[in-house]
Amino acid sequence: MNAEVISLGCRLNIAESERIRALLGATADVVVINSCAVTAEAVRQTRQAIRKARRARPDARLLVTGCATEIERDQLAAMPEIDGLVPNAAKLDARVWREAKDHGNSSPLPLAGAVGGGSVAANAAPDHTHPPLTPPASGRGTVSHTRAFVAVQNGCDHACTFCVIPQGRGPSRSLSVADVLREVELHLGQGAQEVVLTGVDVTSWGHDLPNHPRLGALVRAILDAFPRLTRLRMSSLDGIEVDAALFELFAGEPRLMPHLHLSLQHGDDLILKRMKRRHLRADAISLVQRLRARRPDITVGADLIAGFPTEDEAMHRANLRIVRELGIVHGHVFPYSPRPRTPAARMPQVDTATIKRRAAELRKTAAEVRQGWLRTLVGTPQSVLAENDGTGHAASFARVAVPKGTGAGAILTITPTKLVEGLLQ
Ligand code: SF4
């Protein structure tokens, strides 16, 4: 049976799952779940994926890694389906996956701790010493895709009151410029047509490197080093930490996709303060207005939390309003859920039914704004990167149908004539 890596959660997990897949190789009777624990729902989905994988592969070695191995270790440890846990800090350690492959089903991995029916990888670094970032070894560690995720940063030094990610991923650390360029070259060499820079707190990239370069300098370096790269995209950014060089690139560099996804979290200032976010609603509005003045086709996405502790109806309405004020067309709405060992979990909670209702209202508002935006794209030429499902993504990340037989990775100009169920055709 072939090795299988099931990825949950964020783009950083997707990038890491690619590396694990390549490190494991094809021929190993191993299933890896790269888990997520950002919300209670993500943990539920992780447990569901574990049970489903065990049912599908009763004899395979089932290993779990990812943030849930750090944040929900005891819960996972109680699951008989699991053969071993690989701490987040060790998930890109080639030795772990070599051991997993070589040991087959009979004997457990060298032990560091007992879990369910199996073990914690012995050569995993102790929980909190997250190793520095390294690029994949040349030729290995990546799988060819039309769009490649490059993890330029990991971990986080902030302490937003609702967030468990620092517990799961440790302090912020950056990949050096040389290593980023090496990884981008690897992906381009394997046919990637678009590169997405990702991480946990991407705008903190460089703070731990000599001379503390900022993210804008990295983007510039990539575009200069690879003139043939025509599509560079950013994943979620902290708007208040967008540096001047990055702003100028967003405002005027055609090879940087006009798609700004903000880690906004909420539209009410008092809630933003209680979240310990570093921005206020006016900061986000000003950033988007200034960018739109320079690049009118820029599209905005945002992460938003519904039902944060102490949120009342007026604050919720402020959350709804900011979706329209920023013209958020890629809205990711998260119903608040208390996370272990976070300050927000100790604040007065909003009841579950209200959280659900508010999340639904936020999603409805974001869907209305998106629909309105998509209608404006009908009749306009779109540069589309084709995927392998008969659709592709425009520079703005709108989904567009591509002509039958179009190969994945083709970049073509399409002028959609209609909008059908959110798909431009
Ligand atoms: S910036 Fe805040 S929300 Fe983002 S990972 Fe860090 S602590 Fe979590």
Descriptive overview:
The protein is globular. The model is unreliable at about 105-130 (pLDDT under 50). It has three domains: about 5-120, Rossmann fold; about 145-375, Alpha-Beta Horseshoe (pyruvate-formate lyase- activating enzyme); about 380-425, no CATH class. It has helices at about 10-25, 40-55, 70, 75, 95-105, 165-170, 175-190, 215-225, 245-250, 270-275, 280-295, 315-325, 350-375, and strands at about 5, 30-35, 60-65, 85, 110-115, 120, 145-150, 155, 175, 195-200, 230-235, 260-265, 300-305, 330-335, 380-385, 390-395, 400, 410-415, 420, 425. Helix 7 (about 175-190) packs across helix 8, helix 8 packs across helix 9 (about 245-250) and helix 12 (about 315-325) packs parallel to helix 13 (about 350-375). The chain starts with a strand and ends with a strand. About 35% of the residues lie in helices and about 20% in strands. Bound molecules: iron/sulfur cluster. Iron/sulfur cluster binds near residues 159, 163, 166, 200 and 201.
